[in-house]
Structures are given as structure tokens and as C-alpha cells.
Design goal:
One of its GO terms (biological process) is malate metabolic process. With 947 residues, this protein is mainly alpha-helical. It contains 42 helices and 2 strands.
């Protein structure tokens, strides 16, 4: 059924082919294709698998000792001449390497190439020499492309065409790839003109939101920019690739010896497959890849499928795979014994698994995206289908190299982990160990560490599942015996029962008094009636007081039950992840790796703890505080293991590579603690790192994280002191650190006393005021007692006893409610017991005093006023060339304009324009709009005028 389902999907995934166009004619205009069109016509034309050994040789990376291929059997009459040509061309190629002593500038290299080739043309026009020249130009284009010299690669291609040579197919493929390289090498920020074009149809408040979103993401990588900017990049990429393909077809058309059409179809699909790979690598939609296939009438081969699998997402992955399995290509791959067949199988495996990993990353790793169980289940079905089908189709294929085998199983383990599938991860590792190739003597299997490390990436999924826990799940778990017998729950239950008993007694008293007063035969004197009414008033007061207590206790009781249930559920999910990690580590031990002293394993595991914190940063909300002690126990446990290995001599901190790995390990640990909002634990980790490495200096990223932590606590002085520490150590701070301090200062200036951080609004602490209300109620009860006391002197002794009992209950209830449910339950589970590092007792300086000392020592000159902040931005640019982000500058400028502080605004504008790229395009566009709202002013009105 699953196969039929995906087959129905794939038949709608791709459009049918259009008739081939005449030779040399431009491609028809592209239109948006829909997934409801048929695909069978496209894939039914797959040619038989051809021997691609020559192509594999062409695709090898160009090394520093490049040599131009020689003909296997050159004519004897020109062999000496050919060797001379090869030597000359090799010299020209070597001169293109930037790290070569013979390197020459691009323009000089072009001139030398032209002179050398022109001289060769005058000496010989043999076919063999021409072939060597074409191959040499191909190598030159490869060298230039590898060094990101895109313009030089294009100029070399144009030069060879001017000299009458035809670019090879591989040369055209590199030129297609260079389209993306050129776009990515361009300016990081979107230009003002492009931004105006993108926002020309946006109006009103939406424009403000769009430009602020662009400002916020201006410094991010291309794939993390706004949708409008990413779409603009794709538009230009597609246009450039299409132009390059047109040039390829025109070049092939002019070549009388090369027919580009055979029976109405393009005979060579190399450049087209490269275009598909470029699209896949740069996030172009799968639908757009299909449009390219249709418009260019691409003859589908095995490399086409590899590119399509890399660009597919979700259901498009099994849809594409199903079409591949229905073709003859799989059969030809399985029976082939050439090395290229093994490489094609590797590409299919790796690209299919990468597509699954990318699908998971795009959907579940976003900090703002919601996670739904149906999406998780869907992706898991995709993996199970793809893994099963590929395993079945290529069960008999033996990989040509150990590297191919390792890479396939590494990606399989990574994809299974990316879907949170524990059983498949274990199965894949078992298969990897069982079928691994033997070493030369045939006694031991050759195993890589990478598949096991990738399997550890399953750990964050335990917290993704925690994220999906609902209150209904917690309520159902709260009915279990271990929740009901929780000391905190029992304590709350006992107090609740006592209050309910008093409440029920008071209600019974009221009912009895009402029956006496309202009885038909009641003959009550005035004194008796007054006494009964007095008792009724007291009972009513008791009902009101105890009802409030009962409501508070009931809410706190339910809160404690749900909290304990959540903690148990979190503990169970994490323990299951721990068992998976233990399985992987056992496999590593069996494979011969020393897990105890292998820092790669420790770093990978700590990285997963960090990823767990980062993924849950904005999505766990209140529950995140309950996850942090569970996670920090694991962080501290791993740190203690590494610390023990260092102290025992298993790890040499004097070794440069080991020291670098230790810094990275602690960097991940500190980041985890910061992201889980554990300030004391962060300080403890920093001290432990300094003890082990024997230095007080931290890694730049650690300083960034500590600054982030300080700013979130509105401790700008401490954040600034950390910046000063970096300066004293000669470290260049990041623009992100400058941004956080600037925004922290602005927020601290703007926050009012009513907006300060206050926990009184939380459920637990809000209920702690019950004791105060009880005192008010008790005072009211005392007033009633004073009124009645005149007529009921004989009951004074009883009331004194009741008052004493009530005061004791108040005290007991207050003590109970003043204890945090979270702290009480964490103590029950002993979550804080493991938060201790080896050797921490040797330090007498507490985390708080250490932070205070740092602040007093270095943070006294932290910026305070808005003028200080402007100077702060200028100082760090002058010291290290750190340019402030646009997202840093815009809030500062907005506040200056809001307060009409035009002199300081003019100063800041002058500072930014004196920097190289200080005034970013998005900032400039925002300023234009904002200033136009101030009476139609422009930037020129605030720039310095030349006298």
C-alpha cells in the first residue's frame, strides 16, 4: 500500500515532456508547473547506463601537481612535440595557483595563456595538440573556479573560443557551477536598489515590518535571509544558469563535429545535470528543477536522478526514488562491475539520505516553527520507505572503496537520527559492523568512527518529544502510583484534606443553625438568637476563609501533580535517549575505539546537549526550566569524565590538537548552560575549564555566550567587563557581542519600574500571598468575636483555643506554600545531586562573588547614556574594526530621533559613514523612510556640509 501511495504521488510530481525544439532554438518561456501533471513521459526516455569512467576522471579535483592527460597511443611522429606541449601547458596551469611561487596575476596569466597557445598554433595544428590545449584550458578553468576566481574562469573560456578551441563538456559544467559561486561571492547585504524593488508593492505598517525583518537578518547567511531576498537570489541564479545553458547549446551547435541532438533529444546531459545539482545545492524548489528538465528536454540518466534526489523534500523523495526503481538503470547498476557503478550507487544513497536530513532540519530545527506529531510520523515513513527500497535494490552491490561504504552508512545513520528513529539507528550500526570490509590480512574489519558519531545525533529528539507532551499527557501520568505517593503531593493532599474538613464542619454548623432558627416550633429568646447568629457569622467567616484556602491548595495540589508527572515523563524520555547513547558507545568499544579518552566522542555528545538547548530555546517556555536540571546533570557528568581523563594523564593538555579539542568541548558545555539559563552552572563550567587548561582565557564564542547571558539578565556592566577581558587578551569581539550590549543598554534605559523582571505573576509565587489574606480574614474574625464577646463570656476560653489553632494552621500553611513545588520535586528526584564538578571545592570564590569581582574590576566604564553608547560603537570599530550590525544601529537611531537628539544623531551618522560599509543598505532605506516622516527630511540634511 505504501509503495502504491508513493507511486500515485510521483505520477503527479513531474510534468510531461514537451516536444524537442529545433537545433539552436532558444528554450520556450518557462511557466509554473503543477505537481498534478504526469511524470512517466519524462522518465520513460532514460538511456541505458553508459560507461562513465571517463567522466569520473574528469570530475576529479585539480591538485597542485596537475598534469595534462596524455594520449595512450600518440602517433610516433608527433610524440616528442606533444610532450613539449604538455610541459608548456602544465607550466601555465601551475602559474594559476595562488599558493605557487610561480603565481601570476589573473590579467597577466590571461596574456601568457594567449601568447603560449598562439605560439603552439603556429607550430602545429594537429588534432592531438588541439585536444591537449582544450584539456589544459579545462584544467585552468577548474583551478580558477576552485579558487573562486569566477571572472578568470569565464575569461579563459572566452579566450579559448577566440583562438578556435571548443570548451569541453566539463568546462561548461564548471561555468554553470560558477553562476552560483559568483552570486554567493557578491555583497553580503542586499543593495538599496534591490530592496526598493522588493518592497515597492508593500504599504503601511507592513512595510515597516518587512524592512525591520530585513534589518534583523541582514548579517545572516543567504539561506537565513528573508523570503523575498532568497527569492531574488533564486531568480538571478536561474537566469544565470539558463544563460549559461543557452551558451552551451550555441557552442555545441557551431561545432560541426558534435551533434547535440539525437532523435530529437539532447545527447549529452552533463551540463544540465550540473544545473540541477546547482539548483539542489542552493535550495531551489523541486518544482523549478522539474521545469528545467521539461524546458531543456533533458535525457534522464543516473546522474539526473542523483541531482533530483538531492533537491527533493518530503514526499518528493520517495516519488523520485520510485521512478528510478522502475527504470532499467537499477538493473544495469547491479550487474555492472565497473568502479563508476559503485560511485553512482553511493551518490544515490547519500543524496537520498541528505534530502531526508534537510527535510528534518528545515521543518524541526527552526526556533519558531511548531512541531506536530503528524509531520514527524510522515517524515519517519519517508525514511523507512527510502531506506528499505534502496537496501533491497542494491543489496548485491559491493562498494569499490571503504570510503564509499563508510559514507553511505554515515548518512544512513544521520538520516535515521534526524527522524528520531531509535530502532533503525541500532539496525544500521549493526549492519555497518557486520558487512564492513576486512583489512589487508583479512582478520579485522575496517571501521570508521563517523557512523557512530552520527548516530549520537538522535539524542535531541528526546527533547523534541518532550516538547510535544500535552497537559492531557501529564494529567494521565499524574494518575499513576509514583505521582500519588510523591512526598510533595502527599503533603499537599494532607493539608488540603485538613482544610476541607474545617470547611465541611463550618458548612454543617451553618446548616444546623439555620434549621434551629427556621424551625416551626422554635421558641428562641433574644439572647439565644443573638448567640446563634453570632456563631453563624463566625461559621460564614470560616467558610469564606477556608474556601479560599481550599481553592489555593487545590490549584497547588494539581500543579504539583502535573509538575511531578512532567518531570517523570521528561526523565523517562531522557533515560531512553541515554540507553541509545550507551548502545552506540558500546558499539564503539566493540569496534576498538577508546571511548574514555576519545575527545571526538565527548565533543559530539556535548554538541547534542547544546543542540537540545538551542532547539528548545524559545519553544519550551515554562517547561524549559524543568528540563534544565536533567540536562545539566548530563553535561556535568560528561565534563567530570573528561576532567578525570586529563588528571589521570589519559589526555595531554600540552598537545596542541588535544588542547584545541578541549576548548571546543568546554565551548559546547558553556553554550548549553547559557541556553538553559543556568547561571551558576555556567560559572562552574568556566572555572573547571580554567583549572584544566591552566589559563583564565576563554574561547571567543564562550565570551559571546557569557555576554548573552549577562545581557538577558540586564547586567550590562558584567557584559561590558567580559568585553574588556577579551580586549585585555587581545581578542577581537564579534559584532553580535557589541549588538547584545547595545540592546541591553537600550532596554535597561527604557524599562520602567513596573516592567522590571518580577516572578510574582507566576502560578506558584502568586499563591504564596495566601497567608497575608488569611491574616486579614483572621482580623475580621476577631472583630466579630469582640461584638459577640459581650453576650457569650462563657465561651472566651474556647475561642482562645480556636484562635491559637488557627494561627498554627496559618503558619503551617504559609510554610507549605512558600516552598516552590519545582524545587521540592527536583529534590525528590535528586536532580541537583549531580550538579557538582570534580575539584570545585578547591575554589573558595563563589560564582556570585567571582562575577561581582569581574564587574567591579573591569565594568566600571560601561556605557550608561545614549551618548556613551554612540562612543562605544565608535571605540570598538577604531580598536578592532568591528562594524555594528544594522539591527544594532537602527534602534539607537530610532531613539535619537524620537527624543529629537539631532546633534547625536548627526554624530552617529558621521561615524557610520566613516566606516567601510558602516551604513548598511537596509539601514539606509529605513532611515530614508523615517526621515521623510520628519517633515520630509533626507540624509543630506544631517550630513556634514563642506564649507
Amino acid at each position: 500500500m505504501l509503495r502504491q501511495r508513493y507511486m500515485s504521488i510521483v505520477t503527479r510530481a513531474l510534468p510531461g515532456l514537451r516536444p524537442s525544439r529545433p537545433r539552436g532554438a532558444p528554450p520556450p518561456p518557462l511557466q509554473l508547473l503543477h505537481h498534478d501533471q504526469a511524470v512517466r513521459m519524462l522518465f520513460c526516455r532514460c538511456p541505458l547506463l553508459q560507461d562513465s569512467a571517463s567522466r569520473s576522471a574528469e570530475q576529479e579535483s585539480v591538485s597542485n601537481d596537475i598534469s595534462v592527460p596524455k594520449s595512450s597511443s600518440p602517433p610516433p611522429s608527433i610524440s616528442d612535440q606533444r610532450e613539449t606541449v604538455v610541459a608548456r601547458l602544465k607550466t601555465q596551469c601551475n602559474a594559476l595557483y595562488e599558493d605557487n611561487e610561480a603565481f601570476v596575476a589573473p590579467q597577466q596569466a590571461l596574456s601568457r595563456w594567449f601568447q603560449a597557445v598562439a605560439a603552439l598554433q603556429s607550430q602545429s595544428k594537429s588534432l592531438e595538440v588541439n585536444q591537449e590545449v582544450e584539456r589544459a584550458y579545462e584544467s585552468a578553468v577548474a583551478i580558477a573556479s576552485k579558487q573562486r576566481q569566477v571572472e578568470l574562469a569565464s575569461q579563459l573560456t572566452q579566450q579559448m573560443q577566440q583562438l578556435g578551441y571548443r570548451p569541453t563538456e566539463r568546462t561548461h559544467e564548471m561555468l554553470v557551477r560558477n553562476v552560483a559561486l559568483k552570486l554567493r561571492r557578491g555583497p553580503h547585504e542586499t543593495s538599496v536598489g534591490d530592496l526598493r524593488e522588493l518592497l515597492k508593492d508593500v504599504r503601511g505598517d507592513m512595510w515597516e515590518r518587512e524592512i525591520m525583518s530585513i534589518v534583523e537578518r541582514e548579517a545572516r547567511p543567504l539561506q537565513l535571509k528573508t523570503e523575498r531576498e532568497f527569492a531574488l537570489f533564486h531568480e538571478r541564479l536561474i537566469r544565470g544558469v539558463e544563460a549559461q545553458l543557452n551558451e552551451y547549446e550555441r557552442t555545441a551547435e557551431r561545432d560541426e563535429d558534435q551533434k547535440i541532438e539525437c532523435k530529437g533529444q539532447v545527447s549529452s546531459s552533463g551540463p544540465y545535470n550540473e544545473a540541477l545539482r546547482v539548483y539542489a545545492d542552493n535550495g531551489v524548489k523541486f518544482n523549478r528543477m522539474l521545469q528545467l528538465m521539461v524546458a531543456r528536454s533533458i535525457a534522464v540518466d543516473i546522474e539526473t536522478y542523483g541531482a533530483l534526489l538531492l533537491g527533493a523534500r518530503w514526499n518528493a523523495i520517495p516519488a523520485t526514488l520510485s521512478q528510478l526503481l522502475q527504470s532499467k538503470l537499477v538493473e544495469e547498476l547491479t550487474v555492472s562491475t565497473c568502479a563508476s557503478a559503485s560511485e553512482h550507487v553511493r551518490v544515490l544513497w547519500v543524496n537520498a539520505m541528505k534530502a531526508i536530513v534537510y527535510s528534518s532540519t528545515e521543518r524541526f530545527n527552526s526556533l519558531s516553527a511548531s512541531v506536530y506529531k503528524r509531520d514527524i510520523d510522515q517524515l519517519r515513513k519517508v525514511f523507512m520507505f527510502v531506506d528499505k527500497q534502496l537496501s533491497s535494490a542494491f543489496a548485491t552491490v559491493q562498494f569499490a572503496t571503504t570510503m564509499q561504504y563508510d559514507e553511505v552508512y554515515t548518512m544512513r545513520a544521520k538520516a535515521a537520527a534526524a527522524c528520531g528513529l531509535i530502532a533503525p539507528v541500532k539496525r544500521i550500526l549493526d549492519e555497518y559492523v557486520q558487512h564492513a570490509p576486512f583489512n589487508e590480512d583479512g582478520k579485522k574489519r575496517v571501521l570508521s568512527k563517523e557512523p557512530f558519531l552520527m548516530a549520537l545525533e538522535i539524542f535531541p529528539w528526546s527533547l523534541i518529544e518532550v516538547l510535544m507532551l500535552s497537559r492531557q499527557d501529564a494529567l494521565a501520568r499524574a494518575e499513576s502510583h509514583d505521582v500519588a505517593t510523591s512526598p510533595r503531593v502527599l503533603e499537599m493532599r494532607h493539608m488540603y484534606d485538613r482544610v476541607m474538613h474545617k470547611l465541611d464542619t463550618a458548612r454543617t454548623t451553618i446548616d444546623e443553625i439555620e434549621q434551629q432558627v427556621n424551625a416551626d416550633d422554635a421558641e428562641l429568646s433574644d439572647d439565644e438568637l443573638r448567640r446563634l447568629l453570632g456563631w453563624q457569622n463566625l461559621a460564614n467567616e470560616t467558610v469564606g476563609r477556608e474556601s479560599q484556602r481550599a481553592t489555593t491548595l487545590e490549584r497547588r495540589l494539581n500543579n504539583a501533580r502535573v509538575l511531578k508527572a512532567n518531570q517523570l515523563l521528561i526523565k523517562e524520555h531522557l533515560e531512553r535517549a541515554d540507553r541509545t547513547v550507551a548502545f552506540v558507545l558500546d558499539k564503539l568499544l566493540e569496534a576498538g575505539f577508546n571511548v574514555g579518552t576519545d575527545l571526538d566522542v565527548s565533543i559530539k555528545l556535548m554538541e547534542q546537549y547544546m543542540n537540545s538547548a538551542r532547539r528548545l530555546d524559545k519553544r519550551l517556555a515554562q517547561r524549559q526550566k524543568h528540563v534544565s536540571p536533567h540536562m545539566m546533570r548530563r553535561v556535568f557528568s560528561q565534563v567530570n569524565l573528561v576532567s578525570s581523563a586529563v588528571r589521570s594523564g589519559g589526555l595531554d593538555v600540552q598537545d596542541a590538537e588535544t588542547r584545541e579539542k578541549l576548548v571546543k568541548f568546554f565551548e559546547y558545555a558553556v553554550c548549553t548552560a547559557v541556553r538553559f539559563w543556568c547561571e551558576e552552572e555556567t560559572e562552574a563550567l568556566v572555572r573547571q575549564q580554567q583549572r584544566l587548561l591552566g589559563t583564565s582565557q576563554l574561547a571567543p564564542r564562550e565570551y559571546d555566550q557569557l555576554i548573552f547571558q549577562s545581557v538577558t539578565n540586564l547586567d550590562v556592566h558584567r557584559a561590558h567587563s567580559l568585553l574588556q577581558e577579551m580586549h585585555n587578551a587581545g581578542m577581537k569581539p564579534s559584532s553580535e557581542a557589541i549588538h547584545r550590549i547595545a540592546l541591553g543598554l537600550l532596554h535597561r534605559r527604557n524599562v520602567s519600574s513596573n516592567d522590571e523582571f518580577d516572578m510574582s505573576g507566576t502560578e506558584e509565587d502568586g499563591e504564596d500571598d495566601t497567608g497575608m489574606q488569611d491574616e486579614v480574614d483572621e482580623n475580621r474574625a476577631d472583630e466579630v468575636d469582640a461584638v459577640i464577646q459581650e453576650n457569650v463570656d462563657e465561651e472566651i476560653s474556647g475561642k482562645d483555643i480556636a484562635a491559637t489553632t488557627e494561627a498554627a494552621l496559618d503558619s503551617e500553611l504559609s510554610d507549605l506554600l512558600n516552598v516552590s513545588d519545582r524545587d521540592a520535586i527536583e529534590n525528590e528526584l535528586e536532580l541537583r545531586e549531580g550538579l557538582k564538578l570534580d575539584g570545585d571545592d578547591a575554589d573558595n570564590l563563589s560564582p556570585e562573588s567571582a562575577a561581582t569581582a569581574r564587574t567591579l574590576l573591569l565594568g566600571s566604564d560601561a556605557p550608561v547614556t545614549i551618548e556613551d553608547l554612540v562612543g562605544f560603537l565608535q571605540d570598538w570599530y577604531n580598536l578592532y574594526g568591528v562594524k555594528p550590525f544594522g539591527k544594532t544601529v537602527v534602534p539607537v537611531m530610532a531613539q535619537l530621533l524620537d527624543t529629537s537628539n539631532f546633534s547625536e544623531f548627526r554624530r552617529l551618522l558621521q561615524i557610520l559613514e566613516s566606516m567601510d560599509g558602516g551604513l548598511t543598505p537596509a539601514t539606509e532605506l529605513w532611515l530614508e523612510k523615517r526621515l521623510s516622516q520628519l517633515g520630509g527630511k533626507t540624509l543630506d540634511d544631517f550630513r556634514l556640509k563642506n564649507k
